[in-house]
Design a protein that fits this description.
Length: 235
């Protein structure tokens, strides 16, 4: 099985796919778990989510908080629904593969490839967006849990005899669930970026490598050097 796969994938295609996987997983680790992650947009956003939780604890009327969570859920739901259509489109391409191959042969930098290699490329693209779908739906479920927590958390005010430890636990629980949902949403969006890079593999493997590298640079600039990050850090 393995030997038959390598029989249809050239060295350049193998390297392009390897670089794609390394770039995707490597940047995910760098932006979430490395020592530089605490300086990124995601970590700063988590601090603001915790601040939101503390403010919410002191509000008797939490309609604004419910509206904000509803807006987040609507955005995630939009991406989840869109991903379903993309997955269906990729599956539909398998039925019209001969026409697609004929079309791409006329594109600049395109090269002649076997049908088996095309099928592998479609499977990779399919897997990327299935991954994104799972991330979006899990984010949606966690935002749903967040809305439940908003409804179940009591109002806690200074000087009313509330236990400060209870307030801290409630705030951290709300902030943590909000952050976990946001992280899953970010992973789904990141899959979209790398899914766009995977489309370039249908043209030429070195274009695939170049676009994957460009995606990493774009993500780094947005997560670690963007004006939005500066604004959120501004004291």
């Amino acid at each position: 099985m393995v030997s038959s796969i390598f029989a249809v994938i050239s060295y350049s295609d193998t390297f392009a796919l390897f670089w794609f996987l390394v770039a995707w997983t490597g940047y995910g680790w760098f932006s979430e778990h490395s020592r530089w992650a605490r300086h990124g947009l995601a970590d700063v956003g988590d601090r603001h989510r915790l601040a939101w939780a503390w403010q919410m604890l002191r509000r008797e009327v939490r309609m604004p908080d419910a509206a904000l969570v509803g807006n987040l859920m609507q955005s995630v739901s939009f991406y989840a629904n869109t991903t379903i259509y993309i997955i269906a489109g990729v599956l539909a391409l398998l039925g019209t593969l001969d026409q697609v191959i004929s079309f791409t042969e006329d594109l600049p930098f395109a090269r002649e490839t076997s049908r088996a290699l095309w099928e592998i490329k479609l499977v990779v693209l399919f897997a990327v967006f299935v991954f994104a779908y799972f991330k979006f739906t899990w984010a949606l479920r966690q935002f749903n849990l967040l809305s439940i927590l908003i409804g179940s958390t009591p109002v806690i005010k200074d000087g009313d005899g509330s236990d400060p430890k209870e307030a801290e636990i409630a705030a951290r629980r709300l902030g943590r669930i909000n952050s976990l949902a946001g992280d899953e949403f970010n992973r789904g969006i990141r899959a979209y970026y790398f899914g766009l890079a995977a489309v370039a593999w249908f043209v030429q493997p070195w274009v695939f490598v170049a676009l994957t590298t460009m995606i990493v640079i774009v993500l780094y600039r947005r997560d670690f050097t963007s004006p939005a990050l500066v604004a959120l850090r501004d004291d």
